[in-house]
């Protein structure tokens, strides 16, 4: 195994990713940031210099389990103090599994400002995946807002509440196209349709060759659907795990998920094709994101002769649930789940109002971080720094109607956490419900830090603790780190609490998490050695010496 060292300078620069000029966070001048390429077992060292001038930062290595290094998980408020402007912080961790992963900001809502990139971990020499291809490519799909993170944060935490509304555009590998002739941008001098920043991304392919395309998803809000005109995609990997291959025309992807698909460049080679991403699950006004699937030797800037494909209706839930159910682990590569849980935690997802502020809650508790990050509070035994009463393991199942407008007048904001007994098996059931708007329930992509979970099943309506577990897939469930919770439905997950640390589990929609949509799990914290002093320096450790 090797040590791979990176030196990153993180700063704000003016860019026009969708032709509209705004401040974007770059890493060494690039947005998306550089791809981390490694091999299983390698140690990654990232020396990060915060040159944002007026903002803190922290970077999370999404999908990397941080075994033995929970303090380098990069989750501000949970695993470390923020990196102050001007400071340098060194992350050091092992990539212990092959596959496709992501990294992104985990401080405030900076992911929205463009601070993200891909991590690609190859198998050890001599080992092979259960599929083959000639070339390997990665793209990240994203949505894009013209407002700054601070403007959005202020709106979301104001009375009256100011919603961010729909994204202005969708980006494919950091490029999109906003219509500069639309008001209010017209005449404001910020939109430039011919800026080189917003020429569409082109993926060049050699006719006849098979490609592996790794797709990462990091939108702030929207669930997306990707289509490559005229080409089928065979899904082979999800969140670093081999999938029993299945073929799709449209791939639905939720924020925080990664997939690998195989594509054969087997269409008429005399032209180019559209790659398009489209918002699903909302009544969106956002135009589709477009890129060019470029057959060599056609010019990569030559537009395909066709109108980009429209794809299924955005409010059509059935094909999305069908895809969720189709993802099974590849035979022979699956680690089967333990057959029974030691503990079951049911989390009711609701929108609430707390003191007049709009929030999201789990079992009526909306997460707010303490001033001392949990890893530090627990590692240094500063237990007074957060609420020691655990949040509830369930909600009032018998009396709560998930189809009525949420009316949780007793919701509270709290920094309490779930403490799991080390090495036990825990089932987590996500239960969706109606929001505060009539006849409305929205998709939430849930992401767990520090673990992969088995996806035991999806269902509609209210989860029944007695009958629904009988329908679980205990034969070939896929393991993932991010999973959708569909409208008015439930999703059942199983984990083994065997990674000492403190781990966030939250909705990956930037705005929902910011509004409290997450919980925190602790397990085996007593097994950890001394915390590196570099993660300290805030909250109750303000006076601690920083190197
Ligand atoms: Cu990719 Cu806690 O997030
Ligand atoms: Cu959500």
Overview in brief:
This protein has helices at residues 149-156, 318-326, 374-379, 510-514; strands at residues 3-15, 22-27, 36-39, 43-50, 59-62, 88-94, 99-105, 116-122, 135-144, 169-172, 202-205, 210-217, 223-228, 233-238, 241-248, 250-253, 258-264, 273-280, 289-295, 343-354, 357-362, 365-367, 412-414, 418-420, 425-431, 444-448, 453-460, 479-480, 482-485, 489-496, 501-507, 518-523. It is mainly beta and 547 residues long.
Characterise this structure.
The mean pLDDT is 94. With 547 residues, the chain is mainly beta. The protein has 2 domains: 324 residues, Cupredoxins -  blue copper proteins (Immunoglobulin-like, Sandwich); 198 residues, Cupredoxins -  blue copper proteins (Immunoglobulin-like), CATH 2.60.40.420. The radius of gyration is 22 Å and the shape is globular. The two termini are 29 Å apart. The longest helix is centred in the middle third of the chain and has 9 residues. It is built from 4 helices and 32 strands. A hairpin with an 8-residue loop joins β18 and β19. The protein has a 6-stranded mixed beta sheet with strand order 10-9-12-17-14-15, with no helix packed on it. It has a 6-stranded mixed beta sheet with strand order 21-20-25-30-27-28. Bound molecules: CU-O-CU linkage and copper (II) ion. Its EC number is 1.10.3.3.
């Amino acid at each position: 195994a090797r040590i791979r060292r990176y030196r990153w300078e993180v700063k704000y620069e003016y860019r026009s990713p969708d032709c509209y000029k705004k401040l974007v966070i770059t890493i060494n001048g690039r947005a998306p940031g550089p791809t981390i390429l490694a091999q299983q077992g390698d140690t990654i060292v990232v020396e990060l210099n915060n040159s944002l001038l007026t903002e803190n930062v922290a970077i999370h290595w999404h999908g990397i389990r941080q075994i033995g290094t929970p303090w380098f998980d990069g989750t501000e408020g949970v695993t470390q103090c923020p990196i102050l402007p001007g400071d340098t912080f060194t992350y050091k961790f092992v990539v212990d599994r092959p596959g496709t992963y992501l990294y992104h900001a985990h401080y405030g809502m900076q992911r929205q400002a463009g601070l993200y990139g891909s991590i690609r971990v190859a198998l050890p020499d001599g080992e092979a995946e259960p599929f083959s291809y000639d070339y390997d490519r990665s793209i990240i799909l994203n949505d894009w807002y013209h407002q700054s993170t601070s403007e959005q944060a202020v709106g979301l935490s104001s009375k009256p509440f100011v919603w961010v509304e729909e994204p202005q555009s969708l980006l494919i590998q950091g490029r999109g196209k906003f219509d500069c002739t639309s008001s209010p941008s017209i005449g404001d001098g910020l939109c430039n349709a011919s800026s080189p920043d917003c020429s569409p991304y082109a993926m060049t392919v050699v006719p006849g060759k098979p490609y592996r395309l790794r797709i990462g998803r990091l939108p702030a809000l929207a669930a997306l659907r990707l289509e490559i005109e005229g080409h089928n995609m065979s899904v082979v990997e999800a969140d670093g795990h081999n999938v029993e291959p299945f073929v799709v025309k449209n791939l639905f992807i939720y924020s925080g998920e990664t997939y690998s698909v195989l594509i054969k460049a087997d269409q008429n080679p005399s032209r180019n094709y559209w790659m398009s991403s489209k918002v699903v699950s909302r009544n969106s006004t956002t135009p589709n994101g477009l890129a060019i699937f470029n057959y060599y030797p056609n010019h990569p800037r030559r537009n395909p002769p066709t109108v980009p494909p429209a794809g299924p209706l955005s409010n059509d839930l059935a094909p999305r649930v069908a895809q969720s159910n189709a993802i099974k682990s590849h035979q022979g590569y699956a680690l089967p789940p333990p057959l029974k849980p030691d503990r079951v935690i049911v989390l009711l997802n609701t929108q609430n109002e707390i003191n007049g502020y709009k929030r999201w809650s789990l079992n009526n508790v909306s997460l707010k971080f303490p001033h001392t990050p949990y890893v530090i509070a627990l590692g240094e035994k500063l237990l007074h720094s957060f609420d020691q009463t655990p949040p509830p393991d369930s909600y009032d199942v018998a009396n709560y109607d998930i189809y009525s407008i949420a009316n949780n007048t007793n919701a509270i904001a709290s920094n309490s956490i779930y403490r799991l007994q080390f090495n036990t098996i825990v089932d987590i059931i996500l239960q969706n419900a109606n929001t505060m708007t009539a006849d409305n329930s929205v998709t939430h992509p849930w992401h767990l830090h520090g673990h992969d979970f088995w996806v035991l099943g999806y269902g509609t309506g209210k989860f029944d603790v007695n009958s629904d577990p009988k329908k679980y897939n205990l034969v070939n469930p896929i393991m993932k780190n991010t999973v959708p919770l569909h409208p008015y439905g439930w999703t059942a997950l199983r984990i083994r609490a065997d990674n000492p640390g403190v781990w966030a589990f939250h909705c990956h929609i930037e705005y929902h998490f910011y509004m409290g949509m997450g919980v925190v799990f602790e397990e085996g914290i007593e097994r950890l050695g001394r915390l590196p002093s570099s993660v300290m320096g805030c909250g109750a450790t303000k006076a601690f010496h920083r190197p």
